[in-house]
């Protein structure tokens, strides 16, 4: 019974199947175009099934796609606009007729949770084994159609695959180069067969470009798309490429099936095209190529010198580099471009990654002005390079939008050290630093910027700031008044990234690369002339980055007292001492004048700074894309109104003297024994005076003083709000000093600190300047430096001095002569090792530019003891700073002389200089001597200098020679010190002199006669010497003891002595008046004045031989 029932069911199913699978059925039109990977071609009609007749359709071995994700976007699948897919599985033959739901795939309005949400409807399906039957009805909309994939392509897919190869290219000299070529494959994956024909159509930006085929499977490379195809059609980068592959069983492409790739974007992808950053910070722009590229190289060159790379240049077409607004800068190591690595022919192989991400670091370059202006930037990218694929060069990449948010916590801030010293951090935490030593005042965490301060005792219990060292990378600038004379110099100049400006004789501003500015004011008040007021004004790049006595710039006073280890302390003494340095760790030690260079990754380039109104820059050498690079993010703007003063001697130690000479001179100055420059103070100035006064009383007194004597205080109600804090701080410091000293002697000094802070604030605040032009003009007109020291009147911002006072602040009396305290090389210059003539520096104090005059006297000292002075030269001299000037020393040239006793040849050359401001009152003179260490030696003792002719040398016709050294004009002449130290010794023989090869009889007779004459001379000389009865005989030596008078004031310079190394005698005494003793007779002659002056004894005993 059971078997009969099963037989009945089987017969029923077969009957039903047979009835439907074997009948006549409808043919679905455009069946070959209904594949899910078939995209509508240009000018090709869409398939529209809204008029499709209802009925059963035989579709062969095709099936409807069941996954909407396998379908492309609009117009990319099934030859229509929106394809219809089946929401269900393909039935098995045993299932017979089944019901299924079909859906329309839409790009817009699709429900992500139910892809069949939009207008589903039903169909019927039968799997007949050899073919499929679908009962279809008309579609609801006009731009939709049913999709059917052939069974032989149902597992196929295609994609665009970029590929690189290198073709042989013959160069000019017949050399073979490997030149890169880029092409694209329509790569087929899945169950591929070799019995089909393939045709590939290529589309660029959805526009048909070309078609290649049909070809058999092994000839698929013939269907590739080449970069030349794109270039010929004016395509480069930033394009979409797709391919459509048609397959058929015959070369006529009949009954073709097709597969369409997804879009392939050819270009350099910007992974973060929108960048948001805080002003002063950095951000990375990420670039990724979507294709491989290569570089040309010789076929046998497997180790090219340069890396193969594609340059991507960044530039801002709206940046005019007018320094009035922020701009974008790029790290100098990238120089406004990033290098994306490519391949040489020996490096490329399939599978090597070519889409690695490359980064370009950008930051803001900001003027030191509170009104930053621009905060949105549109950056452009342009590709370039040489020897690369043709298609990659000269392409513009997607723009980058950079938006910055302004940082204001650095504005209206200053860190200072005033006088003894009153200290304040950037965030306004005030304290006292009563300790002697060298301190780190400011240090930048991530860049090589640092400021060191030196303090010394300035009265019985107080210490004052007297020196500062500013370092940026390989540059160091010193202003040191802790020594006498003072020193203002660049002591290291490796990079020229410190911009030092001399605002006036006593105010210097040092601009650091990140925009930080150090203001150094030399106090010019009686009793405090050698002290400093230091201000450090931060930039936006100092926020959260500062350490040292200035604390952390972050608007939080609570964390300002941090030690170098980061420990937070509360006691100002513990905090101050933690930042004190050993001498060997300071920039005041010459051993530390070789600092590390500024890291190139901390240097930035403007990209480009000026485009000359062009919007498309060139890529050739010397073009508009060339970046302006510097470690300085703020100083490349020559028009920046905030950079004040004239440049103080560009950071270049060489100037007119050799680098070696000046470096040695700086080291000499710093290493010489420092004369304690005890800072002058009034005798009654002592901390904690016995005069009792409360801080409140002192503050009231200072307020009255500021109101009546400080011009700046008159503008208090109209100045920027930030300056109210500055005035309160200055008055508080004034009151503290009043309680310490018991008098108001320092009040004017604090008034000047207030004026300088206001001036700097106005300079940085363009918003205030533009809104209050009258206030700004009144301030600049009425507020003069140091209130003209009460020795002049402030007129239009300048001091008009009275009562014979000079200098910009009327601080110097015209009758006071400048002091000369030191000369170049310590007054002793060895011409064989140094630059001894030309512009020679002298050191002292109170040098006034355009006023100070020299009285320069050139003198020569001869072997016979005669000293000859030239007429004095009186003229205004160049002033470098109040402590350094220049005199011009003529270059002396030695000449050959026929003088038998060398008496007309100078042994020592010298210069004597004294200075005056009024041309009448000259200060004590300093002498400057030029000698040749090759033969001239010197000793220095308490009585003065001793010069001598060194053993083993000769001094002939004003020139030094070593033993056995030949005469350049006659090789028979040699220096033989054991024979004669002042004349050539003739040493030619018959073997080496052609003259001696002749008959020498006349010469021999002459020699004999000459010998007899010499013997007679010696005998006579001996008799004369015995008659003279000298106190002492010095054989073979020359000793001269001379005291040179200095000025009409009756003071004398150091004693000069000349003697041999075997027997040094010093019988002169420094500072003695001229002697009337006739035994001390030595002649001194001046041009036009044949008179004589008396000197110390002169001992001369010249013999031809030494035994």
Automatic annotation (TrEMBL):
One of its GO terms (cellular component) is extracellular region. The keyword Disulfide bond applies. It holds the Pfam family VWD. GO terms for molecular function: signaling receptor binding. Gene3D superfamilies: Laminin. Residues 1068-1089 are annotated as: Disordered. It comes from the Eukaryota. Keywords: Disulfide bond, Membrane, Signal, Transmembrane, Transmembrane helix. The chain crosses the membrane at residues 1003-1024. Residues 413-587 form the VWFD domain. This is VWFD domain-containing protein. It comes from Potamilus streckersoni. The lineage of its organism: Eukaryota, Metazoa, Spiralia, Lophotrochozoa, Mollusca.
């Amino acid at each position: 019974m059971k078997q009969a029932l099963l037989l009945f069911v089987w017969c029923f199913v077969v009957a039903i199947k047979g009835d439907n699978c074997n009948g006549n059925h409808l043919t679905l039109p455009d069946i070959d175009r209904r594949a899910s990977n078939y995209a509508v071609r240009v000018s090709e009609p869409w398939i529209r099934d809204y008029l499709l007749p209802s009925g059963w359709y035989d579709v062969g071995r095709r099936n409807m796609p069941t996954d909407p994700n396998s379908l492309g976007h609009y117009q990319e699948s099934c030859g229509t606009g929106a394809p219809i897919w089946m929401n269900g599985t393909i039935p098995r033959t045993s299932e017979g007729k089944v019901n299924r739901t079909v859906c329309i795939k839409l790009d817009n309005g699709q429900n992500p949770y139910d892809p069949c949400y939009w207008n589903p409807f039903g169909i019927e399906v039968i799997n007949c084994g050899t073919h499929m039957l679908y009962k279809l009805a008309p579609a609801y909309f006009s731009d939709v159609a049913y999709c059917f994939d052939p069974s032989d392509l149902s597992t196929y897919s295609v994609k665009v695959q970029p590929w690189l190869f290198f073709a042989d290219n013959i160069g000019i000299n017949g050399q073979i180069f490997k030149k890169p070529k880029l092409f694209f494959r329509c790569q087929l994956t899945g169950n591929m067969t070799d019995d089909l024909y393939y045709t590939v159509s290529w589309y660029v930006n959805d526009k048909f470009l070309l078609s290649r085929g049909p070809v058999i499977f092994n000839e698929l490379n013939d269907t590739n798309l080449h970069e030349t195809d794109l270039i010929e059609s004016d395509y480069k980068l930033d394009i979409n490429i797709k391919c459509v592959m048609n397959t058929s069983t015959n070369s006529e492409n009949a009954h073709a099936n097709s597969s369409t790739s997804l879009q392939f974007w050819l270009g350099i992808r910007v992974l973060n095209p929108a960048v948001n950053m805080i002003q002063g910070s950095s951000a990375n722009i990420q670039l990724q190529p979507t294709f491989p590229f290569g570089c040309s190289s010789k076929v046998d060159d497997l180790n090219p010198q340069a890396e193969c790379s594609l340059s991507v240049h960044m530039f801002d077409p709206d940046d005019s580099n007018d320094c009035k607004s922020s701009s974008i800068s790029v790290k100098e190591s990238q120089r406004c471009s990033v290098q994306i690595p490519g391949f040489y022919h020996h490096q490329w192989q399939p599978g090597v990654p070519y889409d690695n991400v490359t980064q370009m670091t950008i930051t803001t370059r900001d003027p030191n002005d509170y009104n930053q202006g621009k905060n949105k930037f549109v950056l452009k990218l342009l590709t370039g390079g040489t020897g690369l694929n043709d298609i990659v060069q000269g392409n513009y990449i997607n723009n980058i939008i950079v938006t910055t948010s302004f940082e204001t916590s650095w504005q209206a801030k200053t860190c200072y050290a005033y006088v003894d010293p009153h200290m304040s951090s950037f965030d306004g935490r005030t304290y006292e630093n009563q300790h002697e030593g060298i301190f780190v005042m400011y240090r930048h965490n991530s860049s090589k910027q640092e400021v060191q301060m030196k303090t010394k005792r300035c009265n019985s219990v107080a210490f004052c700031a007297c020196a500062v060292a500013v370092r940026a990378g390989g540059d160091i600038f010193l202003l040191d008044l802790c020594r006498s004379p003072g020193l203002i110099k660049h002591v290291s100049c490796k990079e020229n990234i410190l911009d030092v400006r001399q605002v006036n004789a006593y105010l210097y501003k040092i601009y650091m690369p990140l925009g930080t500015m150090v203001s150094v004011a030399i106090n010019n008040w009686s009793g405090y002339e050698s002290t400093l007021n230091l201000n450090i004004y931060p930039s936006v790049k100092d926020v959260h980055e500062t350490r040292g006595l200035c604390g952390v710039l972050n608007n939080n006073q609570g964390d300002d007292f941090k030690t170098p280890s980061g420990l937070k302390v509360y006691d100002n003494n513990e905090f101050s001492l933690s930042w004190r340095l050993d001498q060997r760790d300071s920039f005041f030690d010459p051993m530390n004048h070789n600092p590390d260079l500024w890291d190139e990754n901390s240097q930035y380039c403007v990209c480009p700074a000026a485009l000359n109104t062009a919007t498309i820059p060139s890529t050739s050498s010397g073009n508009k894309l060339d970046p302006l690079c510097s470690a300085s993010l703020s100083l490349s703007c020559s028009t920046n109104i905030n950079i004040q003063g004239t440049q103080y001697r560009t950071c270049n130690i060489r100037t007119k003297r050799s680098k070696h000479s000046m470096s040695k001179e700086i080291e000499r100055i710093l290493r010489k024994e420092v004369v304690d420059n005890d800072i002058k103070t009034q005798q009654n100035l002592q901390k904690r005076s016995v005069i009792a006064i409360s801080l409140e009383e002192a503050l009231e007194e200072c307020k009255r003083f500021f109101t009546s004597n400080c011009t700046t205080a008159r503008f208090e109600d109209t100045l920027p709000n930030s300056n109210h804090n500055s005035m309160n701080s200055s008055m508080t410091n004034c009151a503290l000093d009043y309680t310490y000293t018991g008098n108001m002697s320092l009040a004017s000094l604090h008034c000047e600190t207030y004026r300088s802070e206001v001036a700097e604030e106005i300079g940085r605040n363009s918003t205030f300047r533009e809104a209050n032009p009258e206030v700004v003009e009144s301030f600049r007109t009425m507020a003069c430096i140091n209130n003209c020291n009460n020795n002049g009147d402030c007129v239009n911002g300048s001091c008009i001095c009275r009562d014979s006072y000079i200098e910009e602040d009327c601080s110097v009396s015209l009758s006071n002569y400048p002091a000369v305290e030191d000369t170049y090389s310590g007054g002793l210059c060895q011409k064989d090792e140094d630059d001894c003539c030309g512009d020679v520096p002298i050191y002292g104090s109170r040098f006034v530019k355009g006023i100070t005059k020299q009285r320069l006297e050139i003198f020569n000292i001869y072997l016979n003891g005669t000293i000859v002075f030239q007429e004095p030269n009186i003229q205004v001299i160049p002033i470098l700073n109040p402590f350094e000037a220049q005199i011009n020393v003529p270059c002396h040239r030695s000449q050959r002389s026929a003088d038998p006793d060398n008496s007309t040849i100078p042994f020592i050359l010298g210069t004597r200089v004294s200075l005056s401001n009024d041309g009448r009152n000259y200060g004590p003179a300093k002498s400057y001597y030029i000698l040749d260490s090759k033969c001239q030696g010197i000793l220095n003792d308490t009585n003065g200098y001793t010069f001598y002719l060194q053993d083993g040398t000769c001094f002939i016709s004003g020139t030094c020679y070593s033993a056995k050294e030949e005469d350049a004009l006659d090789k028979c002449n040699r220096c033989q010190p054991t024979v004669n130290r002042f004349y050539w010794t003739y040493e030619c023989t018959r073997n080496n002199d052609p003259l001696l090869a002749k008959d020498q009889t006349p010469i021999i007779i002459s020699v004999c006669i000459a010998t007899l004459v010499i013997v007679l001379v010696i005998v006579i000389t001996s008799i004369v010497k015995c008659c003279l009865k000298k106190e002492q005989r010095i054989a073979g030596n020359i000793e001269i003891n001379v005291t040179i008078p200095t000025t009409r004031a009756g003071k004398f310079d150091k004693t000069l002595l000349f003697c041999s190394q075997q027997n040094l005698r010093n019988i002169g005494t420094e500072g003695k008046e001229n002697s009337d003793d006739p035994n001390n007779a030595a002649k001194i002659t001046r041009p036009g004045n044949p008179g004589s002056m008396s000197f110390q004894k002169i001992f001369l005993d010249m013999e031809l031989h030494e035994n």
